[in-house]
Amino acid sequence: xxxxxxxxxxxxxxxxxxxxxxxxxxxxxxxxxxxxxxxxxxxxxxxxxxxxxxxxxxxxxxxxxxxxxxxxxxxxxxxxxxxxxxxxxxxxxxxxxxxxxxxxxxxxxxxxxxxxxxxxxxxxxxxxxxxxxxxxxxxxxxxxxxxxxxxxxxxxxxxxxxxxxxxxxxxxxxxxxx
Length: 178
Prior knowledge:
By secondary structure, this protein is α+β, with helices and mostly antiparallel strands. It has 6 helices and 4 strands.
């Protein structure tokens, strides 16, 4: 498994705001998070990165618990107002690029990993779900919440900021490391 020191040295080249290492067993998986996906997210049932395609909360939990360690990190994006959903979503790509770079680095060090990140995948203009397989399963990062994980609880547990100001959005990612 990759050492903390090696990963910390690598992330110094990116604008990672805060981070924490912990065991997957420390995550509280919740069906209420999935309920929010089902009731309020317009991406529910439309992409391989979201429920129900990612599996049940129990299946997601089982998959996550197969890993030895988690690396939770956040990045900051500036916007005119965090309530402006369209503008906020446009800042997500930079965070996804950092997630991809960290994931690739971990794999290059010989550790298997699984990345969960922001919202739902937007690699393809139109997702193949449910009529065909994911075109880029190695690049697709399911949403953290799709797995029943409440990011605000993790942030609080590991003394990380969850909100900053009306003009700053915090994006979170979790890498599960074997």
